[in-house]
Amino acid sequence: MKESRDGTRTARASTKSSSADSYPLVLDIDDFKGDFSFDALFGNLVNELLPSYQEEDADSAESHSNITANDLLPNGSSRLPSDAGKSSPMFPEVDALLSLFKNSCTQLIDLRKQIDGKLHNLKKEVSVQDSKHRKTLGELEKGVDGLFNSFARLDSRISSVGQTAAKIGDHLQSADAQRETASQTIELIKYLMEFNSSPGDLMELSPLFSDDSRVAEAASIAQKLRSFAEEDIGRQVVTVPSVVGNATASRGLEVAVANLQEYCNELENRLLSRFDAASQKRDLSTMAECAKILSQFNRGTSAMQHYVGLRPMFDLEVVNEDARLVLGDQGSQPSPSNVARGLSSLYKEITDMVRKEAATITAVFPSPNDVMSILVQRVLEDRVPKLLEKLLDKPSLVNSPAMEEGGLILYLRLLAVAYEKTQELARDLRGVGCGDLDVEGLTESLFLPHIDIYIEYEQASLRQLYKTKLEELHAECQQSSESTGTIGRTKGASIASTHQQISVTVVTEFVRWNEEAISRCNLFAPQPAALAANVRAVFTCLLDQVSIYITEGLERARDSLTEAAALRERFVIGTSVSRRVAAAAASAAEAAAAAGESSFRSFMVAVQRCGSSVAIVQQYFANSISRLLLPVEGAHAASCEEMATAMSSAEGAVHKGLQQCIETVMAEVERLLSAEQKATDYRSPDDGIAPDHRPTNACTRVVAYLSRVLEAAFTALEGLNKQSFLTELGNRLHKGLLNHWQKFTFNPSGGLRLKRDITEYGEFVRSFNAPPVDEKFELLGIMANVFIVAPESLSSLFEGTPSIRKDAQRFIQLRDDYKSAKLASRLSSLWAGSN
């Protein structure tokens, strides 16, 4: 097999060699057309040579696989046998391929020269054709330009002919219009002459004016004749007649005008009768035909008004039924809620009627908006005012109706309900359609007689409500007083119960009245300036009411304090009385004390309710009033000033009452101290018994009384009022105790007892949270040491606490050993130095 392969390869090589020398390969230009591939061309050239080489290369690869390691060169190549290069060359087809490539290159050069020659010839032909084409295009352009010029001339000629034709058409149209006008004028003159024949004679008129089938044409001609005749008469009046003929013509046209007027009236009445007959049958087409013809007479106003006037919704029975529906049975007092429901029902019924009529009007009348305007205007000027006249009977401000009859507030509430519901009706009617009618303005005009002086009625109503409420409260208080009788009065415990207390509920009711009035202000006059003025006037009424009410309540509470003070003064007796008289006086004094304590609590409750009432008013002002006043410059500040002024009287009453409360408390403290304090409390005998370190009975009674009675003050007062009241009371208590202790003599054990009392008082007044008062009682505790220390230690005591020297000069004289120890001479130098 190997030998055969070698033989074949040799034969092929010889064949290739011979073919390479004879240039057998021929390359054609077609080989390079279409999808040309160099790899395919190259393969076609060498495929006949390379396959034999590849077979031989495969055989040599088998022999190379038998090479041992010893046959490998140091660089990794195999060592060939010595006779390998002698048998055959490494690549025997090289010569054949080289000859083939040279032959191919020669043929490719020849092909390139052929192609270059063809390209050169083609360029020459293209150049010749291009010059011919350019010449042809030039000639075509000249022809097109000539054609465009011809078209332009033709278009200009057509335009000129069209304009001439249009002018001729205009002239023809104008001539035709003039002919038509002349024809109509001839006809009109003929008809005018008929009407100008004799006054009141309508029998000789053309059949046109008596033919029912040509009523529309007759109406149109009659109106034209009438307009022309009246215009001519007007010109004759303006121009002074100088010719008899003019006067004659004028008189003739007056006859025509009179006859035309009579004919138009007769024709209009005939059409209205036909319209009414069609309306009864609901024949909308006939109604529409009549309405269209009637629109030529005064723009159809008479037909519109005639139609609206005959609507059943304006009948007298229907109007009377409106009042019964809204006001209820005759003689009964109307309720605003019932009136609101009645008005809503009635106005809804009216709106539905108008909506139903709108459908008919749209189908019948050529100008439905004008008819709707007349219909809605009739509703707002006839039906609604008649109802409002019965509903809103304006009361007299001089002789106002009593509250049993509803008072002024009933009128105002009915006015607000009627105004609000009528405004809703106006908006609904606007939605249905009313042409160019100013529905809102017309609705406002219905209420102008009421709204112009509305604020006066609002103020009078608030005053009436306030007066009625006070009378009611007074009657309740009187009834309560009568039912209670005089039980307990002899003990003085129920003096305050006979007086009417301030009620936060009543003040809240005042605010509720005012809030209702403010809502009406916003309803009737929403414009910022007018609203602010009305709001200020109404709010001022509230300020006056609350100020008077709480001030009078505080004054009544002060009267209780005054009565209790009078009871105390009544039972003050001297020292030289019998034991029975003294016992009776003591019992009466206790009753007066109970009355004072009750009055104190009552006034504190009044102060607390006064503060709550003022807070309610201030909160109402901040939430509801201020936002309505702020848009107007100065209104808010002025109202704040008015509020401060109104509350100043109450503040004055509170101040005076708190002073009386302090007097009441201090009077009872002085009574307790005078009744309970014994001389032996601070000057116990030196009998060897251990001293008593408890507070004295008088101190215990006073602290218990203060704790009990001031509980109301701690609850009622707050802020600066509480601080100033407790500070003043603490100062008065301090002063009263100093004056009280001036009546006693103290030994050292009594000084210790006194110091225990001062500690008890100090602990109590610490609850006042008044640092100046605490400081005074601390100094009292230090000053009590002047009764405890030995005489020789007094100087060192004063030197250590110089702040007590002034009061110590008085108190040191209360020592039981002041004279025996000659303390005056001992301390004289100290007093001189301090002075």
From TrEMBL:
Signal peptide: none annotated. Residues 1-21, 56-87 are annotated as: Disordered. Pfam families: Sec10_HB, Sec10_N. Residues 217-825 form the Exocyst complex component Sec10-like alpha-helical bundle domain. Residues 63-80 have a biased composition (Polar residues). Belongs to the SEC10 family. Keywords: Coiled coil, Exocytosis, Transport. GO terms for biological process: exocytosis; Golgi to plasma membrane transport. Residues 95-211 form the Exocyst complex component Sec10 N-terminal domain. GO terms for cellular component: exocyst. It comes from the Eukaryota. It comes from Coffea arabica. InterPro entries: Sec10-like (IPR009976), Sec10_HB (IPR048627), Sec10_N (IPR048625). Residues 10-21 have a biased composition (Low complexity). This is Exocyst complex component SEC10b-like.
